[in-house]
Amino acid sequence: MPKVVFVGAGNVGATAAVFLAQAGLADIVLIDVVEGLAAGKALDIFAAGPILGFSGDVRGTTDLAAVEGADVVVATAGLARKPGMDRMDLLAKNAAIARGVASAVRDRAPGAVVVNVANPLDVITEQYLRATGFPRERVLGMAGVLDTARFRAFIGARLGVSPRDVQAMVLGGHGDEMVPLTSHATVGGAPLGELLGAAAVDEVVERTRKAGAEVVGLLKTGSAFVSPAAAAVEMVRAILLDERRVMPAAVHLEGEYGFEGVCLGVPAVIGAGGMRRIVELDLAAD
Known about the structure:
Elements: E1 3-7, H1 11-23, E2 27-31, H2 37-47, H3 49-52, E3 58-61, E4 72-75, H4 91-108, E5 113-116, H5 121-132, E6 139-141, H6 144-159, E7 166-167, E8 170-171, E9 179-180, E10 186-187, E11 190-191, H7 192-195, H8 198-209, H9 211-219, H10 226-240, E12 245-254, E13 260-271, E14 274-278
Parallel strand pairs: 1-2, 1-4, 2-3, 4-5, 5-6
Antiparallel strand pairs: 7-10, 8-9, 10-11, 12-13, 13-14
């Protein structure tokens, strides 16, 4: 069975481990610097197997050497946002954490695909790329899947329809500068602009951009974790099963969309080995 390692056993990492365990796609390892945290959560998840219907191995440790032989490493380790903070406030400390994790992955799991979830997402993903020395196809950032899910959920709520019938995509950076593609959004095949007025569309776009901060403001002592965990597992599933899903991912750009040498969210075909190719959409000037 494939091996998936979650580096960071906080809310995002542990919740993602639950979702992946339920899918029955891999043996799971949780790693965290806090003594007993990863082992305790892993044991708790493992004990739920007979109830939730999975039988894979789930274990936890403080030792980064446990990334050995991983097929996918999901990096959630890092500080979470608090009220009043933006994602860039986390940069210095989370970049240092990323470099340490990346060194272990480079040395012990040289064939792994890295899916970064730590913020500031785009910059930290670039850190993983540089520190591992992996090809860009095997270092991805999970942000666009989450932002797109929020966009779809808010559109569905505004129209009173199932978000499953909303097709949409959010590109760009993971923050206020993200770009929800309103011109490509459809609901049951109908263009979004035919169903919502311009002012309503703008409101949905703005709420999508501020959704993370909205959650932080409500929780006060933490940040979103269920939806980021689900989004990360969506990417892991596509990799493990070679689903070749088209989904937004933060990848290192080499001229695509006019950008060079940075990680940004773009549509990508995700399957075995990570990014298969980047999809370049025709974008309206606005």
